[in-house]
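Recall the central idea of this unit: under ordinary conditions, the amino acid sequence of a chain determines the structure it adopts. In this exercise we apply that idea directly, starting from the sequence alone.
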Amino acid sequence: MEVVVGRGKKVFVQGDISELETDAIVNAANAPLELGGSTSQEDCHRLGSTHVGGAVITGAGELKAKHVIHE
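Accordingly, the structure predicted from this sequence is:
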């Protein structure tokens, strides 16, 4: 489904987000940024942690997306 918002467009996709070739995907993260085996875990270790309600961005490792937003 596509929705136009102002000058931008939002695209909603149902399926495996790890297969999307996109600028970024969003990951529901825990405070210590422990991902459970992701190749972007090294980036998370460099950042340390985040707080509840916070967000950080990392590279996407071997995913097709360019970045992962951990919130």
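Strands lie at 2-5, 8-11, 24-27, 56-59, 67-70.
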